[in-house]
Write a structure and sequence with these properties.
The protein is built from 7 helices and 2 strands. The chain has 160 residues and is mainly alpha-helical. Strands 1-2 form a two-stranded antiparallel sheet. The chain is elongated, with a radius of gyration of 19 Å. 13% of the residues are buried.
């Protein structure tokens, strides 16, 4: 386990920014390692995901935001449309997303997550939340209370 930040370093705004950046990056990296990437289009041994991080993020964005055009998805994920076209094709081939006609523009399509796509996302989320719950269980009640109070603040920072 790492040593806690020294009070003098985290007391300043720049010091706190550094401590949060490092801690959040480590936690994010650790959560990503819980998502083993598979090689095939099927769930592999141990429920391994067939998706890359980019594919998983695109599927999650579609599920979270509802119907999206391929262009909206590319813009949301900050990737070029040709790259997103390949991601969408992969997701569609595996039955995780479906294309439907755009309700107002016949030249476009919208993407939606399928039941299989939503189930895959739910499984990934359960795995990560179970790991995090185990780690939180190792903390003291006081430490968990600090995190309960900090969670909305961290969420606010993530949305700015």
């Amino acid at each position: 386990m790492t040593t806690p930040p020294t009070p003098s370093r985290a007391a300043s705004v720049p010091g706190l920014a550094e401590e949060l950046r490092i801690s959040i990056a480590r936690l994010s990296r650790r959560l990503r390692t819980l998502r083993p990437a598979g090689e095939t289009g099927e769930l592999g041994a141990g429920g391994r995901s067939p998706l890359s991080l980019t594919q998983f993020a695109a599927l999650a964005a579609i599920e979270r935001h509802g119907s999206m055009t391929p262009r909206e998805l590319a813009d949301h994920e900050k990737v070029q449309p040709p790259s997103m076209t390949r991601v969408i094709a992969y997701l569609e081939e595996r039955g995780l997303v479906v294309r439907s006609p755009h309700p107002t523009d016949g030249r476009q399509v919208v993407l939606n997550a399928t039941e299989a796509g939503a189930a895959l996302l739910a499984d990934e989320r359960r795995r990560k939340e179970a790991w995090l719950a185990r780690r939180l269980g190792e903390l003291t009640e006081g430490e968990r209370e600090i995190l309960r109070r900090a969670a909305p603040i961290i969420d606010k920072l993530s949305r700015s």
